[in-house]
Amino acid sequence: MKGTLKYLRPYGGIAAWGVTIKFIGSIAELFLPLLLDYIIDEIVPLKDIVPVLWAGLLMLAFSLIAMFGNIWANRLSVSAAAKMTHDLRYDLFKKISYLKSEQVDEVTVPSLVSRLTSDSYYVNQMVARTLRLGVRAPILLVGGIIMTFIVDAYLASVLLGCVPFVIAAVAVITKKSIPYYAKKQANSDDMVRAMQENISGVRIVKALSKGGYETEKFRGISDRLGDTDLAAKRIMSLTNPLATLILNLGLVVVIIVGALMSDGAGSVLAVLTYFTMILNGMLGLSKIFVVLSQGIASAERIERVLKMDTAQPAEELAEGCGEYAVQFKDVCFSYNGVENNLTDINFALPHGGTLGIIGATGSGKSTIVNLMMRFYDADSGDVYIDGRNVRSMPPEEVRKYFGAAFQNDFLMAGSVRENIDYGRALPEDSILGAAKSAQAEEFVAKLHGGLDYDLAQKAANLSGGQKQRLTVARALAGQPRILILDDASSALDYETDAALRRELADKYPQTTKVIVAQRVSSVRGADMILVLDDGRQIGLGTHEELLRTCPEYAQIYRAQMGEDV
Ligand SMILES: Nc1ncnc2c1ncn2[C@@H]1O[C@H](COP(=O)(O)OP(=O)(O)OP(=O)(O)O)[C@@H](O)[C@H]1O
Ligand SMILES: [Mg+2]
Question: Ligand 1 in contact with 111 (CB < 6 A)?
Fold first, then answer.
């Protein structure tokens, strides 16, 4: 919670100013019934219009101070809360973009989305409401009690008798509701997950006519969220009526006692008004408890992410062989720490060479890329880039070596140019050259506006092959030292795929290339092909060598050439 509150510090001035004005406004409000009592019991009996008018003006002044004070203070508190939430959300977003891959796996993307959206909203509500009610409610409550004593001690003691009951009721109810708010946020993660899946997978849902199935699934999640919310609200909804009931019982006694022994109608009226104020004070406090319980649960969820250690320290490690652009030495890796996803991977790729990686789905091809780029660290063995152990370099430095087109890579809403450039302010020539090499030039020229053609979100207005060509262009545009194409030409026809490979060989001779593919034709020209099976390296060599030495590779080749189907 402390971690979240520190975001309020820069706006402490605004918040303090708001609280002060609220204080003045609430005190002014507190004096109104006392004035009323005085006017009714002391001034009205004088039957003189002048003092009545003066007293009326004084009441008006107090009312105005109370009203404008409240409005102004509310604005200030909303503004302080909005600003601090803005900063908090910004930092959270920044943190998320630096999270290690395993940390994202652990928290899950939907939960990160909901922390960024609904949790930060609850923190905002907590701060805004606490600033608004945090001063007013206690003043109305405590001040109301004191004022009642000033007006009439007898009536005040009746009132005081009720207060402990009300406080006990509010406290018990609020305590019971708190666990539901944490649960509600967990359910909200499920809801975001379902929405994301459903909306991104809208085509498959439609293709399999599973709209009904998905709707039912969503209904289940939505019901669970609704039920938890309802359970929390059902408990909290007892507060108001229960507090009112207890105070109203007190009120009956006040009227009876007042009728028997009070010294004037003004006092009874004032005490009744203070009663309402005290009630409002208590309800205000219970509202604070609600937003606090919800806000604290959310703040903790946000802080859990903010506190994550994203540093991937650069260790002092022995250098490898500088001759190689990429080298894997006895590398083993597991995502879940249970079964290995890669076992004993060994290869050394010279500068400017091309490595092809081939293997069945799930055999660990993308995992090799993940380790190369230090998205994850190997459990044992070493990965070297340019002769340097990746663990001796900060991840950002590792990534400077690479230009990558990942499997199912994404394009964002924006122009073709923005997508290729991706905020690097590259010269026009590089963008055009990359588009040309990636075989994208022709189709881009046909788009309305060419490079300025606006892509829809996720580039929904392009075909699969067109998208792949743009992701390849993006990878090439920065003239990387190592180029990674993970299944990046799977949607290209054979001819375009071949043209792309020719272009890479001709125009990027210095660039080391790592090409992950399912098609033998995409990797057969590589200097070295790594064959993977269930995370194990079952073959390494050129196409010809593998045909002789690796039966599995020969089998894949024959199957794809149509000889063994
Ligand atoms: N983030 C992850 N968390 C846990 N397991 C993972 C993760 N990513 C991949 N895996 C597992 O690691 C294994 C290798 O996955 P990888 O993505 O490297 O396969 P691949 O060879 O690239 O497959 P494909 O050809 O389908 O892209 C698979 O069994 C997969 O389930
Ligand atoms: Mg893959």
Answer: no
Give the span between the Cα atoms of 95 and 82, in whole angstroms.
20
Measured CA to CA in angstroms, residue 312 lies from 68, 229, 284, 328, 374 at distances of 53, 40, 47, 19, 9
What's the average pLDDT block by block, 10 residues per block, for the chain (565 residues)? Answer: 90 93 92 88 86 88 91 93 95 92 89 90 94 91 90 81 80 78 78 75 67 79 86 80 79 78 75 84 83 88 93 79 91 92 95 94 93 93 94 89 88 88 89 92 88 80 87 92 91 87 91 92 92 93 93 90 57
Contact 254, 144 (CB under 8 A): no
Q: Which of 324, 357, 383, 364 is nearest to 488 (CA)?
A: 357
Residue 362 beta carbon below 6 angstroms from any ligand 1 atom: yes
Task: From the CA of 105, give the closest atom in ligand 1.
Answer: 1
Taking the C-alpha atoms of residue 439 and residue 559, their distance in angstroms, rounded to an integer, is 28
- For residue 535, the ligand 1 atom closest to its alpha carbon is 14
Q: Are 444 and 433 in contact (CB under 8 A)?
A: no
Quote the pLDDT of residue 364: 94
SS3 label, residue 356: strand
Domain limits, CATH 3.40.50.300, in the chain: 406-479
Q: Is 388 in the pocket of ligand 1 (CB under 6 A)?
A: no
Residue nearest to atom 2 of ligand 1 (CA): 335
Q: Is the CB of 407 under 6 A from ligand 1?
A: yes
Distance in angstroms (rounded) separating the CA atoms of residues 272 and 264: 13
Which pair of structure tokens corresponds to residue 388? 């340097």
How far is ligand 2, taken at its centre, from the CA of residue 522, in Å? 15
Identify the pLDDT of residue 263.
65
Ligand 1 binding pocket includes 361 (Cβ within 6 Å): yes
Superfamily assignment of 406-479 in CATH?
P-loop containing nucleotide triphosphate hydrolases (3.40.50.300)
Structure tokens of 145?
A: 């009690």
Task: Give the residue among 77, 75, 91 at the shortest CA–CA distance from 4.
Answer: 91
CATH of 2-306, one of 1.20.1560.10, 1.10.357.10, 3.30.450.40, 3.20.70.20: 1.20.1560.10
Per DSSP bridges, beta strands 512-516 and 414-415 are unpaired
Whole-number Å distance between alpha carbons of 268 and 276: 13
Q: Where in the chain is the domain with CATH 1.20.1560.10?
A: 2-306
**DSSP letter, residue 535:** T
